[in-house]
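Exam revision sheet. Question 4 asks you to relate a sequence to its structure. Input first:
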Amino acid sequence: MGVRAGLKLAPTIMDILDYKEQITKIYLVRHGETRANKLRLLFGHLDLDLNQNGIKQARKTAKKLVRVGLAPTHIISSPLKRAKHTAKIIAKHLVGAGLTRTQKIIIDKDLLEKSEGTWEGKTFWEVRKEDSKNYKKWIKNPIKNRPPKGESISDLNKRAKKFYKTILRKYLGENIIVVSHSGPIRLFILNILGADINKFWHLQPDCGSITEVHVSKKHSMICGFNL
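Answer key, structure tokens:
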């Protein structure tokens, strides 16, 4: 299944022969490519749809999930077009394979990408030239500092934590597919590992990538990358 890395959150070692906690299997999917990805733009909340390559990536991702044989109880997506389109392609393939009966997508705003505020639609080079004061402040501490009218990584992390709590409250013991963006996926993984969010830039989920995660109330495990 790929790279395996277990994390013991409880103070005692888990006895796998006597493990009674409900486990949620989560497949974290990053949306397919858009024009902004290709141009390396900051585009956060800009509501861009998939380009042709992005559609191909979403179909390839869907076929991988079919091969895994996952029968999801829910497919949850960010409200942005690029994520919803990816989720709809996945749902269509799963229905076609008889792995789920409905193409319904649950929309959750906590899965939105980090807002880049007034910088959205621009390259880093353009931002540095046009807004050097705020750019330098952001470069110094991107975890705490925000683009003008945008969000910091800390702001985004509040939403990532909120979504994690939603999983434990509403979807415990189920199999779910979550279609989101690079930022929320990075923070979700870092929170599961109990890692410092300053490691945000050490993770890079590719467009169309899949990360399998198992969570319960006391334990977490990353089970596979890019399945």
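Marking note for examiners. The first helix runs from residue 35 to 39.
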